[in-house]
Amino acid sequence: MTTAPAPRPVPGQQADGPRRPASGQGTADGEREPRWLDEEQQRVWQSFMNAAMLLDDHLDRQLQRDAGMPHLYYGLLVRLSEAPRRRLRMTELARRVKITRSRLSHAVARLEDHGWVRREDCPSDKRGQLAVLTDEGRAVLESAAPGHVEAVRHALFDRLTREQQRALGEIMQTVAEGLEPSYGADLPWLR
Question: pTM for this structure?
Answer without folding.
Answer: 0.77
